[in-house]
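Marked as duplicate of an earlier ticket. Keeping the data here for the record.
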Amino acid sequence: MSKKIIIACDNEHICDFIENYAEKEGFKVKTICDISEDTQHVVRECLILHPDIIILGGCYLDAEQECRHTSLMADIYTLKNDGGEHTLSLPLDIGQLSEVFDKYDGKMRGECDTLSIDNEHNCAKVGDKEYPLGLNELEILRSFIANPNRVFSKEQLAYEVFGPDAKGSDALVEESVSLLKSKLDGLSSKWSIRLIWGVGYKFEVNE
């Protein structure tokens, strides 16, 4: 499966810098650098390409919220100096880009800090210790790790893990998350599985 990134920024030098790095990392790149293209063009490209990473800067910063809505699984970064989460400070340097792609690679491997998924032995590993998990628990944990700090409803998790036609999947999600929490809660100060009352669940990661 090809890895895809959308770079939307009105600074040609920044676009070229990110594009060259992304191509070396094996990504298929779509660059939007023409200021005649509005933010809706970026959103349309997201719907067509289903990118893994989106980087927005300059006049395309206004597309952030719509991109987050249409590209739920993408890692989205903005080029601005506000010190916020998922922002890349200017002037952009190689260290920041390296961190973006390292985080993506770790997410795809099912890794977060000392937590990882061992597919061969159907378990989660925290450091050197193994915690056996059922298949449903593994798939939910995989979705959590792939989407740190995203709030999932039961319905969204059920759709991702069991598909749109699974019967009784909401109850399976509730049971599986409860089992995950009982096995993994308190093992790290850098991540936790949280119940968001009235909404769903969140894999909370402290940067």
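See parent ticket for discussion. The mean pLDDT is 88.
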